Amino acid sequence: MVTPRSTGAFSLDFVPEIHLARAPLEKVLVQVQFSLTPELVSDDGEQRLSAALTRYPVRRRGQSINVKINPATASMENEVVTTRIFADPESSWTVTVMETAVGLETVAYYSRDDFCDRAREVFEAIVAVSTPPIVDRVGLRYIDRIRDVGDLERLDDYLNPRLRVLDGAVASPLVVKHSVSDTVLQITEDELLKVRSGLLPPMAVSDPVLAPIDTQSWVLDLDIFTATGGFPFDPDTLDARLRLYAQHVYSFFRWATTDEFQEAFRDRPATVSGDAS
Fold it and tell me: How many other β-carbons are positioned within 10 Å of the β-carbon of residue 229?
């Protein structure tokens, strides 16, 4: 049995990773923002990135809109951003490169080491094309979503009661339709952990990175990031920081969930494409 962690205060104590056969993990993503490096989205840069990112042979080009606030006029301006996208044939892993950021995301997470190894490959590919002078921000997110009716009925068994908000705390015939908490924890002077969790009605999402679903769901969204940047884009340093961030997020995940949760999802066969731990 897993040692219970949900009865005490949360800490950053190391927790060994347990593989879950069907964890309700919807998406994991890391993004590194940096100073302007237009070479990364040039035609030559795309070719060189493609040669380095052999796990992701599917290539696409795109544009996105970046909303910027002009401090002088207090107005919002839309900036068109060029993107280079590299994915695996199943579209379960995607690398997105812009002139000011690179991101890796997956719906087929297997383990912390696997994800961090893949992220390091991406960082090394960036350096092989053009090293960004300065990193502005590093962010890592893990988003869990429980959607099965049977699992939703067992939230009392699965979750630390401190995350339940009003769910399970109202008398019949009252029914909680929406109950979400939003917390920011200061990890260090320059690092923060944002925790959003709660019960959502059908078609509601906690963030646009998740697709709406037509059933009720419970979401745990863990986002750890740097509050300040200004350090070099170095694959070794970024790799070490990412692994530490992943460890911190997992520590919170284990504090937020119970032994019953671990047992329920550890031995259950996978039933949804992309579900993994």
Answer: 15
Give the alpha-carbon dihedral of 60, 121, 239, 87, to 10 degrees.
30
Q: Identify whether 78 is part of a domain.
A: yes
Q: What does the block give as tokens for 71?
A: 């401090």
Per-residue pLDDT of 211-232, as tens digits, reads 889 999 999 999 999 988 999 9
Q: How many domains does the chain have?
A: 1
> Is 244 a domain residue?
yes
Residue 64 lies in a domain: yes
Asked whether residue 19 is domain-assigned, the answer is: no
Residues 221, 26: Cα–Cα separation, whole Å:
10
**3-class secondary structure per residue, the chain:** CCCCCCCCCCCCCCCCCCCCCCCCEEEEEEEEEECCCHHHHCHHHHHHHHHHCCCCCEEEEEEEEEEEEECCCCEEEEEEEEEEEEECCCCCEEEEEECCEEEEEECCCCCHHHHHHHHHHHHHHHHHHCCCCCEEEEEEEEEEEECCHHHHCCHHHHECHHHCCCCCCCCCCCCCCCEEEEEEEEEECCEEEEEEEEEECCCCCCCCCCCCCCCCEEEEEEEEEECCCCECCCHHHHHHHHHHHHHHHHHHHHHHECHHHHHHHHCCCCCCCCCCC
| Residue 16 pLDDT > 90 | no
Query: What are the tens digits of pLDDT across the range 91-108?
Result: 999 999 999 999 999 999
165 is in which domain, residue-wise? Answer: 25-266
